Amino acid sequence: MAALVLPSLFCLFFFFFLFVLHRIFRKLSSSSFPSSLRKLPLPPGSLGWPYIGETFQLYSQNPNVFFASKQKRYGSIFKTHVLGCPCVMISSPEAAKFVLVTQSHLFKPTFPASKERMLGPEALFFHQGDYHNKLRKLVLRAFMPDAIKNIVPQVEKLALGSLRSWDTAQFINTFQEMKTYAFNVAVLSILGKDEILYREELRSCYYVLEKGYNSMPINLPGTLFNKSMKARKELAQILARILCSRRQRKEECYDLLASFMGDSEALTDEQITDNIIGVIFAARDTTASVLTWILKYLGENPSILQAVTEEQEFILKKKCGEEKLLNWSDTKKMPITSRVIQETLRVASILSFTFREAVEDVEYQGYLIPKGWKVLPLFRNIHHSPDIFPDPEKFDPSRFEVAPKPNTYMPFGNGTHACPGNELAKLEILVLLHHLTTKYRWSMVGTQTGIQYGPFALPQNGLPIRLSLKTTSPAPAK
Ligand code: HEM
Where does the record place it (predicted)? Predict the structure, then answer.
């Protein structure tokens, strides 16, 4: 009996020993084990109070004042602790390039889990590596100049439709109206000519979804978050119908949906849905905020508005009959208007920073960036550095007559996650400005000095304006 039991016990102990060894080895080899870099100092700065860190300091003032004062005190790399997370903030072009471009594999995109749930966890901006590369290729295919040049007439139709709907109103909320325009263009770029069929139902669901986007993530009946999640489900159902109809029709299409549905891509319906909802999210408020700022800056700078108007009238005058419609090459002959867009993107820096998370301990300029810490490249600080852009608060589009130095100008981000929709954004802005400046005049309602964040920087109250056709008497001044 003992002869039978002893070898079994020995085997048992042996396997237990192997199991323990395996666990120890895993623990040692996992990067949670402090790396040799842990002896390096952390960047200068303060982590504030336990857990709450410096969150109150960040939100009790304009966040950009917080970032700027920290940079002044500690330099272009500093640590802080906000929203429950230890962070390293960076504000030099070199550091931004390190995080976003050359060492981007060491820094993954990071979003709160509730945002991922709401937009869809398969959306490209939550990922890195092979899946992200594959999706990015598909998105870029649909938004590169060769693809979007074909939709200029439809974009123009949407711009004209928006402007017509505004000129009858007593006054409009610029941001709200620009959101509708940017939404319609985004849906056009995703669904092509099917846009018109689904635009309204997609918009009403999206409207509910966005209301809960910045709410507390409490999924109980009646909460904004709960309503948002329901709207998200509805959006997924509408998109399922669209997918089904596309598959039945088997038509040749060249929009983003077609790019996602390509046979060789083998994306699941869920992946397609998450990415479509994600692209609309990335496309709408960003473009709408920039358009709103442009109207504000042009309104405040009459000589620049005059130069833009003359450039656009010149393009219009050279056209006759059917030809009056804009085409892609016209949009490439708008250097003054394009510089206004560039300067607006710089001064307003609507995405004043982005978030990454260190996937392992990283050394940067002799400092440790510990694994798991958030890393925030501060685009706005770079765009407002007087060493890079002299007199940075001044709205001066002529500064872009000379191209900015590499990595100093990143309104569309940089590197692996840089904005694939930037050409479309510029196109829709140029088309709207062409018709706005040649046919309309506008004036701001009330004094407009404040900035609000929601989450993008925006003129106070979304910039209410009065708009009128140029053939009628000028809009009354403020
Ligand atoms: C003026 C308007 C816009 C601005 C300022 C803007 C800005 C940005 C920035 C800064 C990023 C990079 C974020 C990061 O690195 O974390 C980004 C990413 C992205 N943008 Fe835009 N964007 C605009 C319009 C658009 C439009 C019109 C679309 C689509 C039609 C779009 C689609 C995307 C997507 C899908 C990503 C994620 C890319 C990735 O993770 O690989 N954006 N955008």
Answer: Membrane
